[in-house]
Design goal:
The complex is a heterodimer. Chain A is built from 3 helices and 10 strands. Chain A has one domain (66-225). The relative contact order of chain A is 0.11. By secondary structure, chain A is α+β, with helices and mostly antiparallel strands. By secondary structure, chain B is α/β, with parallel strands linked by helices. Chain B folds into 2 domains: 3-117 and 217-234, Peroxisomal Thiolase, Chain A, domain 1; 239-425, Peroxisomal Thiolase, Chain A, domain 1, CATH 3.40.47. Helix content of chain B is 39%, strand content 17%. Chain B is built from 19 helices and 11 strands. Chain B has helices spanning 21-33, 41-44, 55-58, 63-70, 87-100, 120-128, 142-158, 162-176, 183-188, 195-199, 228-234, 267-270, 291-304, 309-312, 323-332, 341-346, 363-366, 371-386, 390-394; strands at residues 3-14, 47-51, 78-81, 106-113, 203-205, 208-209, 218-227, 239-248, 315-317, 406-413, 418-425. In chain B, the strands form 2 sheets. In chain B, strands 3-2-4-7-1-8-11-10-9 form a 9-stranded mixed sheet, sandwiched between helices. In chain B, strands 5-6 form a two-stranded antiparallel ribbon. In chain B, α5 (87-100) packs across α18 (371-386). The chains are: A alpha+beta, B alpha/beta. At the A-B interface, β1, β2, β6, β7 and β8 of A face β1, α1, α6, α7 and β5 of B. Bound molecules: zinc ion (ZN). Zinc ion binds at residues 85, 87-88, 90, 99, 101, 104, 107 of chain A.
Amino acid sequence: MVLEEKVEFDNSKLNKWKKWALKGDMGVKGYRIVEGAYGSRVDKIEKRRYMVVERPHGVVYQHSYGLLSRFYEGLLNKKLYGTKCPKCKLVYLPPRVHCWNPKCKLEETEWIEMPLEGEIVTYTIMAFAATPFLKDLPFILTYVKIGNSCTAVPLQLREVNPLNVHVGLKVKVKFVDKPKGDLMDIYVVPAEKPKPPKRSKEEEERLKKDLKIVEEWVKKHFPKEQ
Amino acid sequence: MKIAVVGAGMTRFDRPRRELQEELVAQAFKNMMEDLPELDIKKDISAAFYSYFSDHLEQQLCMHWIIHDYLGLSSKPAYRVESGGATPIDAIINAYTFIRAGLFDLVLVAGWEKMGELDTAKVNEFIAMASDTDWDYPVGGYYSGYYATMEVRRMHLYGDTEEDLAKVSVKNHNNATYNPYAHWRAKNGTKKITVGDVLNSRLISYPYRIMNVAEVSDGAAALLLASEKVAKKFTDTPVWITGIGLGTDSMRPGDRTGNPAWVGLYPEDEAVWPEAETKPLSPYPEMANFGSFRVAADSAYKMAGIRNPLKELDFAELFNPYDGVEISAYEDLRFCKRGEGKKLVREGTTERWGELPTQLSGGLYGQGHPVGATTIGQAVTIFWQLREEIPKKWGSRNAQMQNPKRALLQGHGGTGTQAGVIIFER
Ligand SMILES: [Zn+2]
């Protein structure tokens, strides 16, 4: 029984995702004849003709979030939930429905609402990424300990100069305007003035140059997003 | 019971390789058989274990069924091992275990990957499906992101620097220039690189640059493992496997700050912690180290009777998809204390002329990283080094170590989620 839905893919209707998935049915759509190498050693190779076919393959999964659905439904309502073990009192975000403390023998945890604040455990400045994220480069990926969770959750950090990000930075959790039910519904922003990590002049100049290259690359490839 | 490697071969790692996967494996298999004139495929081989990482990259499920009959092995027991980047080391360990259990005498281990049929961004997306797709994956970091955050943690806690990472990269790339099976050499020839080249290469995920990061490669590699009983039938100079070990850590790196399963396992390492930093629930391995390597290594060392790996190993091949992993591995494999990996880099300990050279093959960006073949390809390098066959196999006298006796092979998958270690001796 469906209690509520907001889907783009519906088995009963030929909407755009269904068409997209059909278009992606695995099958040969074209070919190319190319010249390529043959042989085990770099210094001993021969030329051969190869036929290369184009073979698309698209899929749509109907993925259940299982007993963690409570967390994701929380995101839709702009609330952040973690879990707490009634036995050992450890708090988990990412939530665990069963406590992983070996002493607790998979005790079922309890849902708790988490504070919207945390601390950066570590981070990176992403300067290249997979296709859906290329337009957002450069962005900051962090692992954040929210509230008194013993574990850290991966989130994007925004509204900060990448050069100033540091381990230990206190952050606030924010929700996007239109949550869709995944971890990108939340992100973090600084809750204090960052204390930039110590870098040599040379390192700093290099990093600035790197970021400029990325920004120009994005401008060139995704002009509409600007 | 002793288990031997009696044969090893590979075909160059490169991209794109236009041959089919079975044709690549056939090349590796034939390369191996050059030294096995007595081998009767039908009579002698008792079983095969196959290693490939991704059904998505290959666009084929059960590809090992294709490979198995292609090699003429139909009817013989076989199965595929699958555990992300740890797949090839696990396949070797599977073969070892079956022989040791007395079930088989001569076992083929073959690995391959073709990653060149998709563009790099899509390849990264498919590889990232080995991370938790509900938690780590949606945020867009993928492995280059996860590993970079772990290295930033090391920079913060221990003071690893970008220059340390660049030095590791230079060492490994330059090692690869001697290796005619190496992807780096196929692409760039034999010219040497410098720290400046690395530091000026394109940033991928701070602190990692394109030259700190594993190659996306196509290729195949093969090993032949034998029981002590039959080993001498095939070669007078077998390489013995004297230790194996497996280890694991959490799926998600972020969970490693608070994992009760680790608390108290390594008190000496837990004690290494900067005073100014809050100590997490599980201080070792935390996000800064690879605990799975430690567990795997300790069991392999125990089996091989190794007490001081730095002194007792002659060289090592490590699974270094990113350069910081190699520095951490020095610590987790007990070449040095926790947090001191950078010293080994700065002192040149792991250079080809150093006390314990690492990545003589070139490692994952030097030799290349066709996932299912990667660690088997590194084992091939170990096999040829220990038999002092590098002058013949690589056409390079300079790349051969003088009288090496014992080597370590380490592999892993995920962000060190699963790891294996094997000790080889001649
Ligand atoms: Zn508990």
